[in-house]
Amino acid sequence: VNDDEFRLRMHDLPASAGLLEESAGGDLVASVGARVRRRTRRLLATGVAAVTLVAGGTAGALAVSHSSGVDRVVTTSPGPAGALACPRKVPRLRLLSGGYATVTVPHTPVGVPTDRLVPLHDPISAVVCTYGSEGLFPHRRVLKSDLGELASILTWVPPFDAVHSICSMNSVSVPKAPARILLGLRYAHGQEWVASEDGYPCELGSNGRFITADMDDALASYAATGNPPGPLPRRPGKVSSPSCAPVGRYGQQARMVPAGARSLTICGVGRAVVVHRPFSALIAALNRSRAFAGASGCTSFGRSATVDILVFGYRVGPTLGITVSRGCQQPPIQNGYLAADDPGGRVFALVQRYLAHPGA
Amino acid sequence: VGEPDGFREFVLARSGQLRALAWMLTGDAGLAEDLLQSALAKVWPHWSKIWPDGDAYAYTRRVMVTTSIAWWRRGWRRETSTGSLPEGPVRGTATDIVDDRDQLRRGLDLLPRRQRAVVVLRHYADLSESDTARTLGCSVGTVKSQAAKGLAKLRAALASDEPVGGPR
User: Which residue of B has its CA nearest to A10?
Assistant: First the structure.
């Protein structure tokens, strides 16, 4: 079989399976949309940020700089240096309260404040060590590119409150042998390790102290291929319009809308309205609401309920989503970490006003 | 969650190609549909960055390939491989074409997922070695070696009347 003949036979395979006769494009879009909505609801309902695995930076004091209008974390103190070699021993699982678990790291970061996962520094190098059931030794993958994107993702991961949460394993299929993953990051003055388990539904990422929830597809892709899912075209200097699938960002655990929001998209069923007029009044109303910890989705008990998602975009880092609902049993304002009432319907009224008059 | 501008048109225009590629990567119609939807759902949030200026098809293709490899590495949805092909076809009959297809399909099923992706991208999607390397995030040398190994196994599957396969 020469190359041309082989190629012809390869091209013939899908057609012989009858695949090319299907043309369910419309249904496919609807199915994909449903998946995106489920994912969005899950993210908002559980307060999960987009990415899990987290590394502490090299050590040292973290400071917050407001010079650029957004929170930027820097590290100042040196830490231990050295090559990133995967530990030979399979990392152990550490059980937490509420049914959650984390994977242990080679060493807990020293000197890194507990309220942030990783400094906004690009690591010099990074490795992903995957411990599966297929071999005694870890699979080591060196991440050669997009380390800045990796750092950017990890920097903005909010913490997860495992103490007051419960992971329900009902109706969740658990793979027989979840992979345990260590991510090693090397900086000029030290290194950090972050651990996660890929495949266990109650997994949490941790650097040994800071805990965050879920395992993002991007990190799974790093573990599988050494790269993010795809090279996103960059448009420097332009604030990108956020989609209706908010990610979540550090700061939302303490404030309904963290500072620095630059764009707003209001997403509802079948529509997304980009607001082009100033929306500081809305942010003020959201942050003025008395917020308390909690995220519980919407249960309408048969009543008519409306849920809008406010997606705030920032100059740096991921988007933030806030649900504003009416007709639900739960608090009408939620950002996945915090919930609040809407006294007088002030926030709801503002949202309706922006929907009716989004500006130019 | 609003549908991004141009997304529907893209899906309508490219879903056939993408579904076929997904099938080539998985070898199963159900898994292929799942892979296709998963990939499109991952692309959806980034649509404004790749449409209309970017190459949405190449991006979606890459997401699909990396997702299929990630599934395999995670141990999810992994098909059972017997390590050898069942009884081979009887050569010289009118069923040769159908049998060849079946042999080729089963031969693909025997390849490790990453090797399968290389073969599919090179010889089905007709990507160059460098484009295949870019899609998979590996070196051109890796693409060459994986393609050679994969093709050797597939040729053996097509040429032999005997069960073909072996340990991964």
Answer: B124
